[in-house]
Amino acid sequence: MPCWARSRSRAAGVSRDEPAPPPQADRPPAHRGARRRRAGAVPVRAHRRKRRDGRAAVHPPPHRRRRHHRAGGLRGRPRAARAHPALRGDPEGRGDAVRGCGCRDPRASQAGLDAGAPRPRAARPAARRGGGTDERRRAAGARGDQRIPRRRAGLPRRRDGALRQRRARRPGPCAAPGGVRAGAVSLPPEFALIARHFRPLAGEGALDLADDAAVLDIPAGRRLVIAADAMVEGVHYLPDNPPDSVGKKLLRVNLSDLAAMGAAPLGYLMTTTFARGIADDWIAGFVRGLAEDQRAFGLGVLGGDTAATPGPTCLSLTILGTVAPGAVLTRAGAQVGDEIWVSGTIGDGALGLRVLQGSLPGDTGGHLARRYRLPEPRLALGQAIAGLAHAGMDVSDGLVQDLGHLCRAGGCGAEIEAALVPLSLPARALVGADPALLPVVLTGGDDYELLFAAAAGDAAAVLARAAAAGVPVTRIGRFVPGKPEVAVRGLDGTPLALSRGGWSHF
Ligand SMILES: Nc1ncnc2c1ncn2[C@@H]1O[C@H](COP(=O)(O)OP(=O)(O)O)[C@@H](O)[C@H]1O
Ligand SMILES: Cc1ncc(C[n+]2csc(CCOP(=O)(O)OP(=O)(O)O)c2C)c(N)n1
Ligand SMILES: [Mg+2]
């Protein structure tokens, strides 16, 4: 029997072939409400039909005859009727309400339902089957219950004998707002999705992703740091990017914001709005990437939200971190005369995107594409330079545009030399072959490197701390008096005119 049918009959207390439910006191309130109904009475409208010969037809109730889910994706899915496994204290979160039907229908797994092996069903003694006496019928009617009929009609037919579609049932008087029938505990498939995919990612304080919010302690003597960044399919990542890389990138771009503040990771919240009909495999891959990076960076998910959309997938992550008081790195504080430093190499992500889009050749070894898909959050460096750097941020929109933020926050201008901007070997080769790619490097974004200001006299200390953190850093210019503008000197030493400084969403 499909899972939805099994669940529905249980919620109604119509356990035909299973042991009696646990005592009422052990059950969550929603379950208790369902339990109050007598055997045979369920909050489902009975389908009373006469056979074509006019006599009542005897059929099993509809839910016992269904074998397969009706539709794929996240739509048309079964209504499960048992309490949320979290409410029942199911440690694996795989209670029957969220268990698959066992029919191995790929559409079931697409909906996040576990298509596990069907369970053998034992016959229930006749004495314990739901009654059908007049007295019970009357009592059920008085309570307003709808009853599973003993008699069932055949399929609806037109006069000429052709099958016709049964008209959609209108919500009856017992329907609650939102379509959930009073007395029934329905769980839509996102709960199965959460239990199966996200619960294993739960970190300390997440309360197993089974409560309304997470509760966590901030380590003594630390300050909380919070940032959020979203990624939209087709805007921040390509639809054919491997899903594990999308999960990792989502976490890493947020970790990069913590790095920019000199903070260490604590945990994160995540809101996933999946394109309707997204493959379960995609979500599994996305979660696999998150799981790997959670281990690598030492944090876990604390909660979030799940929705589906007719539009593209939108993933939003809110990251929490901590920092020692006095060691917060902010965008404000750059001073005239400070040197401008950048970590790693610049332009790889932007060039990698163009390689993946097929508009650029030459990424032997896939370095640029990898850098686009998997930025490296510079957490150790951020913490190492905090207290020494005057100001800092991470480069996501483009080096020139983001440097402008440091200028505005510091009340000064900046001058950088393109020739000093550190490039990877593949990027150097591409720009060498086509100097028109230099603006892509300087303004393309997707770098997730740290950009910071430090006093000229502190250069040796910066280099030492960066070396200790294992991250290369390079001086590319200095802050100058004047308007908060960024002047770029091109490879030939002359001013480079750029049509834009970086990425804009609008
Ligand atoms: N929708 C929003 N609601 C509230 N704050 C926002 C919103 N979008 C951006 N911000 C804030 O504006 C600032 C700049 O955002 P952004 O350019 O996205 O920073 P970053 O590059 O570090 O992600 C940040 O402090 C961010 O928290
Ligand atoms: C498919 C695709 N097209 C274009 C880009 C380029 N791009 C999109 S958003 C963005 C800037 C970073 O995203 P944003 O939402 O501004 O992040 P934040 O600055 O808030 O960290 C860049 C460079 C991309 N990463 N992927
Ligand atoms: Mg942002």
TrEMBL record:
<feature type="compositionally biased region" description="Basic residues">
    <location>
        <begin position="30"/>
        <end position="53"/>
    </location>
</feature>
<feature type="binding site">
    <location>
        <position position="257"/>
    </location>
    <ligand>
        <name>Mg(2+) 2</name>
    </ligand>
</feature>
<feature type="binding site">
    <location>
        <position position="396"/>
    </location>
    <ligand>
        <name>ATP</name>
    </ligand>
</feature>
<feature type="binding site">
    <location>
        <position position="397"/>
    </location>
    <ligand>
        <name>Mg(2+) 5</name>
    </ligand>
</feature>
<feature type="binding site">
    <location>
        <begin position="304"/>
        <end position="305"/>
    </location>
    <ligand>
        <name>ATP</name>
    </ligand>
</feature>
<feature type="domain" description="PurM-like C-terminal">
    <location>
        <begin position="335"/>
        <end position="483"/>
    </location>
</feature>
<feature type="binding site">
    <location>
        <position position="229"/>
    </location>
    <ligand>
        <name>Mg(2+) 1</name>
    </ligand>
</feature>
<protein>
    <recommendedName>
        <fullName>Thiamine-monophosphate kinase</fullName>
        <ecNumber>2.7.4.16</ecNumber>
    </recommendedName>
</protein>
<dbReference type="InterPro" id="IPR006283">
    <property type="entry name" value="ThiL-like"/>
</dbReference>
<feature type="binding site">
    <location>
        <position position="236"/>
    </location>
    <ligand>
        <name>substrate</name>
    </ligand>
</feature>
<dbReference type="GO" id="GO:0000287">
    <property type="term" value="F:magnesium ion binding"/>
</dbReference>
<comment type="pathway">
    <text>Cofactor biosynthesis; thiamine diphosphate biosynthesis; thiamine diphosphate from thiamine phosphate: step 1/1.</text>
</comment>
<feature type="compositionally biased region" description="Basic and acidic residues">
    <location>
        <begin position="87"/>
        <end position="107"/>
    </location>
</feature>
<feature type="binding site">
    <location>
        <position position="212"/>
    </location>
    <ligand>
        <name>Mg(2+) 3</name>
    </ligand>
</feature>
<feature type="domain" description="PurM-like N-terminal">
    <location>
        <begin position="211"/>
        <end position="323"/>
    </location>
</feature>
<feature type="binding site">
    <location>
        <position position="331"/>
    </location>
    <ligand>
        <name>ATP</name>
    </ligand>
</feature>
<dbReference type="GO" id="GO:0009229">
    <property type="term" value="P:thiamine diphosphate biosynthetic process"/>
</dbReference>
<dbReference type="InterPro" id="IPR036921">
    <property type="entry name" value="PurM-like_N_sf"/>
</dbReference>
<dbReference type="InterPro" id="IPR010918">
    <property type="entry name" value="PurM-like_C_dom"/>
</dbReference>
<keyword id="KW-0808">Transferase</keyword>
<keyword id="KW-0067">ATP-binding</keyword>
<feature type="compositionally biased region" description="Basic and acidic residues">
    <location>
        <begin position="131"/>
        <end position="148"/>
    </location>
</feature>
<feature type="binding site">
    <location>
        <position position="394"/>
    </location>
    <ligand>
        <name>Mg(2+) 3</name>
    </ligand>
</feature>
<feature type="binding site">
    <location>
        <position position="446"/>
    </location>
    <ligand>
        <name>substrate</name>
    </ligand>
</feature>
<dbReference type="GO" id="GO:0005524">
    <property type="term" value="F:ATP binding"/>
</dbReference>
<dbReference type="Pfam" id="PF00586">
    <property type="entry name" value="AIRS"/>
</dbReference>
<feature type="compositionally biased region" description="Low complexity">
    <location>
        <begin position="115"/>
        <end position="125"/>
    </location>
</feature>
<dbReference type="GO" id="GO:0009228">
    <property type="term" value="P:thiamine biosynthetic process"/>
</dbReference>
<feature type="binding site">
    <location>
        <position position="503"/>
    </location>
    <ligand>
        <name>substrate</name>
    </ligand>
</feature>
<feature type="binding site">
    <location>
        <position position="257"/>
    </location>
    <ligand>
        <name>Mg(2+) 3</name>
    </ligand>
</feature>
<feature type="compositionally biased region" description="Basic residues">
    <location>
        <begin position="61"/>
        <end position="82"/>
    </location>
</feature>
<feature type="binding site">
    <location>
        <position position="212"/>
    </location>
    <ligand>
        <name>Mg(2+) 4</name>
    </ligand>
</feature>
<dbReference type="Pfam" id="PF02769">
    <property type="entry name" value="AIRS_C"/>
</dbReference>
<feature type="binding site">
    <location>
        <position position="257"/>
    </location>
    <ligand>
        <name>Mg(2+) 4</name>
    </ligand>
</feature>
<comment type="function">
    <text>Catalyzes the ATP-dependent phosphorylation of thiamine-monophosphate (TMP) to form thiamine-pyrophosphate (TPP), the active form of vitamin B1.</text>
</comment>
<feature type="region of interest" description="Disordered">
    <location>
        <begin position="1"/>
        <end position="181"/>
    </location>
</feature>
<dbReference type="InterPro" id="IPR016188">
    <property type="entry name" value="PurM-like_N"/>
</dbReference>
<feature type="binding site">
    <location>
        <position position="229"/>
    </location>
    <ligand>
        <name>Mg(2+) 2</name>
    </ligand>
</feature>
<keyword id="KW-0547">Nucleotide-binding</keyword>
<keyword id="KW-0460">Magnesium</keyword>
<keyword id="KW-0784">Thiamine biosynthesis</keyword>
<dbReference type="InterPro" id="IPR036676">
    <property type="entry name" value="PurM-like_C_sf"/>
</dbReference>
